[in-house]
Amino acid sequence: PTAYLIITNISKSRNVKNLLQIAASFGAPKIFVVGQKSFDFDPSSETTDVPLLLQRHIASGRMEIVRFDKLKEFIGVEIDSSAKNLETEPFFTSAAIMMGNEGSGMSSKQMSLCDGFVRISQFGGGTASLNVSVAAGLVLHRYFHWGRGDAVKRCS
């Protein structure tokens, strides 16, 4: 199975760059961009938002950034009553992972495009909130190990 990442509705340039690097580190062959008109994803452009090391990654053919409409199964990362806990590895096939906005989470339109949702267990009494880059890293890490068939050992 292959993991893809969808970048949409992310407002901070630093988070967009972090998401690109995290996806590359887990071997995502494509990153799909929906909207995000204020960002330049052309690696050959002088004003590109693609980090230098990823420009080489793209030039060598190991990764592609694609503006697109729906292609694969969409899994949204969202705190929602229908979301499955990430720890249960609720994956079935190749999937595109969609993250929500840093402050407001996923829009209703984004949620309507998703085939399912995962949530990340959090502990403590405060607001359940992780940085979007951290959350993407956790989900892609779990997906990567699930795809390889790695057993997750639990501490008792």
Automatic annotation (TrEMBL):
Which GO terms fall under biological process for this protein?
A: methylation; RNA processing
Which Gene3D superfamilies did the record assign? Answer: 3.40.1280.10
Keyword check for Transferase, yes or no.
yes
What are the entry keywords? Methyltransferase, Transferase
Is-annotated flag, keyword Methyltransferase?
A: yes
Record-linked InterPro entries: Alpha/beta_knot_MTases (IPR029028), rRNA_Methyltransferase (IPR051259), SpoU_MeTrfase (IPR001537), tRNA_m1G_MTases_N (IPR029026)
Q: What positions does the domain tRNA/rRNA methyltransferase SpoU type occupy? A: 4-141
Q: Superkingdom, according to UniProt?
A: Eukaryota
- One GO molecular function term? RNA methyltransferase activity
Pfam families named in the record: SpoU_methylase
Name it: tRNA/rRNA methyltransferase SpoU type domain-containing protein
Organism, by scientific name, is Thalassiosira pseudonana (Marine diatom)
